[in-house]
Amino acid sequence: MCSKNTSFVEKTSMELLIELLSGTNLHKWKERAEAISTSMIKASYDIKNAVLQKTLSEELYTTLFDEDRTYYAGSYDDSDVSILSLGDVEVLSKNDFTNNIFIVHIKDRMTRIDFKSWAGILRMYNLLQFLKYSFFTTQKGIDDAIYDVIDFNTKRTDTSVDWSFVYEEVLNDAKVLVKALSRHTEIPLPNVGEEIVDESNTVLGEAELVWETLKIAVTIEEDLEAKGWTMFKVDEEEQIIETLLQRITS
């Protein structure tokens, strides 16, 4: 996969950073991440493995894995960190490595992480961040339930990354709605946190989600009225989606 250039294996993290900043070929970096993850995959793997279930939140685990499918994997485990690389056998058999799942889990609940381990973890992050399904978790994060699965990140569509940016930008009150919206690929991306103005450019208030061309806006708490606009509260999920779809097709 990287037969033409394996020099990145020997480069320091600073050298890799300079190479990334001075070049524009992100596809090369994706291939490197895929090569690293694929090189670890060695044998069949039972996804009910306790180690795997400990390294992901329950919601993310059930979203990523299908118990009716067969997986191959390879792993590394010590007192500081566990690393697991997995692939769906059916997908791997087609020489498709873009959907490999790579998990680095930091055991920070009871132990103090060794400096060398931290350096290795950071280097892994530098390289594997370009893999579509790379996850970096900590035991404290799992125990404190801080990881929220973003449904559209596991849908394997070109628009998933754009929706993830919307998800990250909105207030917590709107995240459930954004997840629901992202399942409808025909719905365009909204602007986040935008002021609504009237015909005289007077600011009427701020909406959390705004579709300027469709004249639809969603607010968190504020009641807004503006001529020509259809306004919703964030908890009116069904009405919002229905109206958006009607406007798109009309």
Describe the protein's architecture and organization.
This protein has two domains: 7-149, no CATH class; 160-249, no CATH class. The protein contains ten helices and nine strands. With 250 residues, it is an alpha+beta fold. 37% of the residues lie in helices and 22% in strands. The chain is elongated and about 60 Å long. The termini are far apart. A five-stranded mixed beta sheet has the order 1-2-3-4-5. It has a four-stranded mixed beta sheet with strand order 6-7-8-9, with helices on one face.
Q: How would you sum up the major sheet?
A: 5 strands, mixed
Which structural class should the secondary elements be placed in?
A: alpha+beta
Radius of gyration: 22 Å
According to DSSP, the number of beta strands is 9
Count of discrete structural domains: 2
How many helical elements?
Answer: 10
- The end-to-end span amounts to 47 Å
Uncertain ranges: 151-157
Notable features of this structure?
250 residues; alpha+beta; 2 domains; 5-stranded mixed β-sheet; 4-stranded mixed β-sheet; 9 strands
Question: In a few lines, what is going on in this structure?
Answer:
The chain is of the alpha+beta class and 250 residues long.
Show the helix and strand layout:
Elements: H1 13-22, H2 26-40, E1 43-45, H3 50-55, H4 58-64, E2 71-77, E3 81-88, H5 89-92, E4 101-106, H6 115-128, E5 133-138, H7 139-143, H8 160-169, H9 175-182, E6 191-197, E7 203-211, E8 216-219, E9 230-233, H10 237-249
Parallel strand pairs: 4-5, 8-9
Antiparallel strand pairs: 1-2, 2-3, 3-4, 6-7, 7-8
